[in-house]
């Protein structure tokens, strides 16, 4: 496919602006240049923050019905241009056109839920007369926006994960500055286009493209930025936490998601769900299935079916409706995944299928007999690799599932409600999907994890709670 490079501009405080330096955006499928975006400087980010100070005042003064109108209109704009948005997601990132189309639909839903939640930012009355001597006092609390939010987003969901930060921020009356992933900024710029078309006042939203090493610290450390909402890797998250200072921090840092399959489960359902969960978006998914613990009585049958289904996965051209899986985000990432698999095999793991790399493509890969000291057993792979383990019972599966530093989501397949509830009580994760893989989420639910999987919760209502503060009001009356 030949693309006429248009040379995109970044969205700085409501204005489309350029830069002296540009960044090439490449399609990971063939490494072709599909467009360019500005490489913002620290000075650009400083200017953006100064403008956002005024934007925060404008946003806070917008009535709720106006916030709702703007967010809903942005959603309508995306819906009217859904094919353009899906093609952009698929071209700049790893997703197939079918996966990208689903992401656009989710983005629209994320924004519409944000608009609805704007009307539900409630407070409560407080019975001050519960304390002796306060009989003449009445009052309440309400929630108010915190001001400027800095959002740093990853490449794997370049539209909907941005919407998960922008939608709640605007719905709750804040200004927001988005630093999208350097390799996939085009979808975030399209989201800014939707809000500009919807009539969002200038200075409320900025999408600043550039290298994190050059503009990230300015955004993270500036005292006027009152919250950092980050989705990405653990190392980057820990560095942001050290630098941010005294401000709110929301972190979604990934996982090493387990699935447990017990002998009373619907085996076909478990296979289908887990294969999809392992290889969606080429495994570059924080909820992706990485470890599967199968009860030993059904292990062989599950393994056979799982490998057969994996081998049916169609890997190839992202733009084809027939394709199930495209490339990783770049060849460097595919080489990294290849190295992790080779390390495991070198330590005794058995390769059941896959393990082949072609440029940025890495075939869906299934390993078994993986030693516990392998990197793939402990850390996040973020690639199309899944590990199968045989376990004697549920207690053993739970113990092994918990034995990592992450705890985002898990899946449990069983038709025994008692076993399901035992897993719910004992598994150290932020979400448990019963008779689904770990890779299930709706945009309205609280989303986040335990341990090194992050801090706080996303999901529109819960993000709004993070993006607002409570103010107590008390009247002393003389009646």
UniProtKB/TrEMBL annotation:
Highest taxon, organism lineage: Bacteria
Catalysed reactions listed for this entry: (2S)-3-sulfolactaldehyde + NAD(+) + H2O = (2S)-3-sulfolactate + NADH + 2 H(+)
Listed EC numbers: 1.2.1.97
Alphabetic keyword roster: Oxidoreductase
InterPro entries: Ald_DH/histidinol_DH, Ald_DH_C, Ald_DH_N, Aldehyde_DH_dom, ALDH-related_metabolic_enz
Gene3D superfamilies: Aldehyde Dehydrogenase, Chain A, domain 1, Aldehyde Dehydrogenase, Chain A, domain 2
Molecular function terms, GO-annotated: lactaldehyde dehydrogenase (NAD+) activity
Annotated Pfam families: Aldedh (PF00171)
TM region(s), chain numbering: none
Domain Aldehyde dehydrogenase: residue ranges: 16-473
Its job: Part of the sulfo-TAL (or sulfo-SFT) pathway, a D-sulfoquinovose degradation pathway that produces sulfolactate (SL). Catalyzes the oxidation of 3-sulfolactaldehyde (SLA) to sulfolactate (SL).
Family label: Belongs to the aldehyde dehydrogenase family.
Protein name: 3-sulfolactaldehyde dehydrogenase
Organism this protein belongs to: Metabacillus sediminilitoris
